[in-house]
Design goal:
- It is a single chain.
- The chain contains eight helices and no strands.
- By secondary structure, the protein is mainly alpha-helical.
- Helix 3 runs antiparallel to helix 4.
Length: about 180
């Protein structure tokens, strides 16, 4: 029964994360993502996956920095030493580095444009899936695989519109758009 509850925490966290994208304003997005991140932290904690706990905690901090900072590159540079320290302290073999690398990749991509985020998400979600297999997070294997396949489908379907050319779209979630 305990194992089922732990896996349900992972699914519930994912459901909150998905619903955060439907929120109408930044305050609701942040509150819903705080709940989601807290559930992910609990999920990985109960699995004994402390690298995952740490990385999800840093993701929470990163989200705040990216939402409220005008300079995302500074925010990214700010979290690099934090993630590096966590990689050292929570090291439990090479696979424990997967979520840290995934977080670095995701955070870097968020300093770029939407198409870049989609491309980089293929690598970061693959790393999360590897880590989820390692820590037996079956619910996150499923949910991360769904996101990976969804993003891959978007990339493939947009390939017809020359997705590989230089990305000249506006940055993802430009600050002024969040406060509309």
């Amino acid at each position: 029964m305990k194992e089922v509850i732990i896996q349900l925490l992972g699914i519930l966290a994912w459901i909150f994360l998905l619903n955060s994208y439907r929120a109408k304003n930044i305050k609701k997005i942040i509150v819903i993502q705080l709940i989601s991140s807290s559930l992910y932290i609990a999920h990985y904690y109960f699995l004994g996956a402390y690298s995952g706990v740490f990385t999800c905690s840093v993701s929470l901090l990163t989200g705040f920095l990216f939402y409220f900072s005008k300079n995302r590159k500074f925010s990214y540079l700010f979290i690099i030493p934090i993630l590096s320290a966590g990689a050292y302290f929570f090291y439990n073999g090479p696979l424990s580095l997967a979520p840290v690398l995934a977080n670095l990749i995701d955070s870097y991509a968020l300093t770029k444009y939407k198409k870049t985020v989609l491309k980089f998400s293929l690598v970061s979600y693959s790393l999360w899936i590897i880590y989820d297999i390692f820590v037996k997070s079956y619910s996150c294997i499923l949910t991360d695989s769904l996101v990976l396949l969804s993003n891959l489908t978007i990339i493939i379907s947009n390939n017809k519109t020359n997705l590989l050319r230089v990305d000249k779209e506006r940055p993802l979630m430009a600050r002024e758009e969040l406060f509309k």
